[in-house]
Amino acid sequence: MPATVILGAQWGDEGKGKLVDRLAEQATWVARFQGGNNAGHTVVLGDQVLKFHLLPSGITRKECNLVLGDGMVIDPWVLNDELVNWKESSDEDPRGERLFVSERAHIILPYHRYMDSLDSKIGTTGRGIGPTYADKINRIGLRFGDLSEVNGDSNWAESTSERMNASLDAAGSTERVSKQSLLDDISWICDNFSSAIANTGLMLDNALKLGENVILEGAQGCLLDIDQGTFPYVTSSVTSRGNSTHGAGIHPGHVEEVIGITKAYITRVGNGAMPTELLDEVGDHLGTVGHEFGTTTGRKRRCGWFDAVVMRHAQRINGFTGLALTKLDVLGGLDEIKICVAYELDGQEIREMPSSASALERCKPIYITMPGFPSQTLTEWLGIAKKANSEGKGFSALPSAAQHYIKQLETLVGVPCTSVGVGPDRDATIDLVE
Ligand code: GDP
Ligand code: IMO
Ligand code: MG
User: Fold this and answer.
1) Residue 39 near ligand 2, beta carbon < 6 Å
2) In terms of residue numbers, what domain contains 289?
3) 0.85 surpassed by pTM
């Protein structure tokens, strides 16, 4: 079986966790390949709400192996907390058994968090992501595979803490890193994770050669990509298809399916332009009905109409083979639904996203309007999804205005919808019937 890539197509929080958990039923490996615990992926199983920042969302499937891949930055303390929580609910400690941490992945240390806490421009998650990737690019970062070489090395700890303190001082931070705390931290990480550190790219390659099914779970979204997103208001990794295999340590030829996840509207956390942002009662409706609060930081997400300009950009970068539409239920109860099809920039109509942040700030959305459909309770939507799947009805089980809306999005983006989410629950997804 080939690898399947699951990617956020907007500014993150599209519902990646939910889709990965669902697809992982058919997989034996789920791998994260970039980002770190800036991610917050939610899986809802009946009354149980699971939130993962580092653990791949396939952990819910006992037969699934899990990889934290080469391209990631990992805070070992956050990973440990997640593992403790997981052990409490499942009585399982998967590290070294079915959870493997790449020897090439970089380590987020307290120093990186201190540096990130100084950010006031981007609105980062404050988890140390950017500073850790900066150290990687500067070729001074620490990788899991290099831990044993520095464990107990007091010369290394001395020079590293001096360098960190000079950077903290220059950046205006009052935090400091002592040589002893660094030595203690490295020793703790070794004690807790040595059994899980592995050449994970090789493991995934072997699995694919044996015909196993591998899911590559993206974090963040296309518009947060360091190269192709709304720079500088982006994260510090390549979130796109091109990095999914590279960051997992396998070649791109393994990939056959690339699913782009998109909400039926759009949200963004943090700073930066968002042309379709709604600061009116419709924005309140989306935020309230959709419970739009960040999974990692709890910040209120900014909400707006679906933006086809954003989606065409995401499609050009990623070549999605299918779209997973989520949160269609949240639009229920609105009289009309708008879709942004182009922007007006300085009096001109444009159909592509400008690369400049200030130009994007000046973009005004050009909308088409579609009729709305009635609101239903989550229980009613869940019933519709279960019935649609069990009776093989597909999207025809949805209200006709919702079906027209989906068709319009498919036409504007140029990619077919393969599933439609109508609630947070694992089963509240309607699959396409061919
Ligand atoms: P991720 O980062 O892409 O995994 O997404 P998050 O978990 O951060 O945010 C998505 C939120 O939407 C979570 O609270 C999910 O439980 C919820 N969600 C996912 N799909 C749907 C859906 O189709 N309808 C509704 N109402 N909620 C959904
Ligand atoms: P998931 O995987 C939404 C945003 C932050 C900030 C910018 C940079 O759950 O979709 P960073 O801490 O990465 O340096 O912050 O990126 N951001 C996300 N927004 N979902 C995410 O992840 C995000 N990860 C980072 O809010 O604007
Ligand atoms: Mg999220």
Assistant:
1) yes
2) 262-431
3) yes
